[in-house]
Every structure is written in C-alpha cells, then in structure tokens.
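Fold this: TauD/TfdA-like domain-containing protein
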Amino acid sequence: MASLESRKHISPDSGFSVTLHPHFNARIASHVPSSPIREAFDPPKDRAHFADPEKKALFAVARRVDLTEGVGTLLENVQLSQLNAQQLDELALLVTERGVVFFRDQDLTTEKQVELFEHYEEGILDKHPAQKHKDIYGNTDDHREIANFTPWPIAEWHADTSFEINPPSYSLLRMEEHPEIGGDTAWISQYGTYDALSDAYKRFLEGLHAVHTSRLQCMLCLSGSQNSDLIHDKLIIITIDDTIADLWGIAPNRPPIDTHHPAVRTHPVTGLKALNVNPGFVTGFAELKKLESDKVLDFLYTHIHSADDHYVRWKWNVGSVAFWDNRCVAHRVIPGSYETPRRGVRTTVYGEKPFLDPASEGRLQRKLRKAREAKTNGTAVKQ
Ligand SMILES: [Fe+2]
C-alpha cells in the first residue's frame, strides 16, 4: 500500500482523504528545489541522422520481428552491449520509425547502459525532476489504488517528462527485477493517433499549443506565494498543490513548469507529424477557453484510449529492454497489483524543442502519396 500523507488528513464532512488542500503537508510548503528550471538548448544532431536508411549493419546480426503493423519491433539474436557506433545509429533510426524496439535476455549492466546512451547525446542524460537515484526506480505500488489519491493521473498515457522545454527524445528501460504476472507496459503510436483524426480535426489541432505541466506530478504549493515563469512569451503563474513527494518519499529537484508545445509536432528525423498530446501531462490548450479546452481534452482522451490499432503491449522479464522515442509514442504501465517488486533502470536523453513544420506530412499521408507516385511511375513505364 502506498504511503500517502493525504491518508492522515481526512475530510470531516466526507470521511475521504484530503488530496487537494494546499496546507495539508508542511514539507510541501517548506520545500525549495535544489536546481532551477532548465533553459532551452539545442541538443547535438540526432544520431539517427547518421544511419544507413537500410540499416544493413544492424540487420546483419539482428532478426527483426514487427509486433504490430505500425508500432513495436522485437529484435532477436542481438545483445545491445555488443553493438558498435554504426549499429547504434541504425537502431536509433529504427526506433524513430517503429516508436519502440524491444529486446529480451540482455546482459547490459547499468554502467554499460549509461555508456550506450551517452552515444546518443554526448553525455547529456536527463534526470527526472523527482529522481532519487540517477537512473533507477522500482516499487510494488498498485497504480489503480494510488490514482484514487493523487491529483496527477499516474499510470496514464504519457511521453516522459513532456513538460520540459526540451522534452526527452529516446528512453531506454531495462528490467532488473520483475513479478511473473502484471506490470506490463503499453505504447501507442502518435503517428497513428494523428493519422486517425479527420482532416478537419487535424487542421484544428495544428493551430493549437498543448499545455504540458509538471505541476500535478511535482509538488510545490506555497500558501500565500506564487512562482512565475515566462514560457513562449506567456507568463505562467504556478499556484498548486501536488503530492508526489508523499508518494515517492522524495522532493523534486526542480520547480514545477508549464510549457506550451505544439499540439501536433514534426519529428525531426522522419519528418512525420505526430500528435503531441498525452493525458498524463497535458491539462489544456493555450489558445482555447477552459470549457473548449476541456472538451478537446475529453475527446483526445477517448481517442488515445481507443487507439487499439496503434497499440502494442509488452510483457517484461528480467533482462528485457524497451527502447522508445518519446517524440512519436506515448506509453503507460498497465495498472494492477503484484507481489514482488518491479525494478528497472531507465536512461533518457533530451531532444529538441518540439516544433511543427506546416510542410511536413502524416505517416498515412506519406504512404498514400508514395503509392500514388509508384502507380504513376509504373503507368508511365508501361506506356
Ligand atoms: Fe514513462
């Protein structure tokens, strides 16, 4: 059972735990994060740009098994620890295309995993704003039960720390300890969820910025005081109360942040449009009135949760690895209870500041265009 401060504070009128009262936790009121909000920066050029499009070096050793039509590939017969720089670049390209790539029975150590990920960003590894140890987390928490007590929709679909000004690009999670049953992770393709919208809705979303916030996940609320931040020329006032410090027993090392990112983004490597909204961190749309914003979020929640044709679910074992691209997939742990701890080591690198190139195209749109071009060329050859 999760240890939540809120359980000690019961609403006298309802008998339920208090979660949203700003004064219930003295640690929240007194906490001063150790680091400031991260400034925007230009990360090194994505290693996937350096890859051979056919990935010959990688597929010379790895056997490819695509798990669904549009998202998720299992690579067999390969140890990540043995890949050379060229193969790692090709792997990154495959991840940008397939969203997530899986491995089983890996011999990676934490040290080697960090070294491997430093290849992708010359040592600029992300550290989660509420991370206790550098890269490791694990617990036996039942997310169904926790979700009843935290304002943050824990275990919802999300892209890792998408509230950052430079949100993560690649994440790699390696499982060191895992129960026999439960704790699966699922991914959905945001290329796919974008494609599944009508053209009119796509155009509507392309004119919006989604508000990605860490407010509900971090914690900071100061009675009588406010934090403010200038994001994309808009002054954001932060006055909230959050509870993750109670849940994880740690305090965040950076202040909360709201960032306005394009609701549809262009992937810098594939050039494809992807939906950039996730229920875990997005709380609204900057250009809309609250009621309008709530209704759009409500629709997208249903849209993302019903995207079965753009979904893949992964059952973990000790030594399994998932390597994904937060710019084109969202993921979530499937909630449930399990007896033994689930403990993994995650490494993450920062990506570019999200952008929308109006000239870019959706994945389905590109496929149809290429089919048309092939048909035209084929007809021309026959004539
Ligand atoms: Fe995550």
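The chain has one domain: 5-382. The chain has ten helices and 17 strands.
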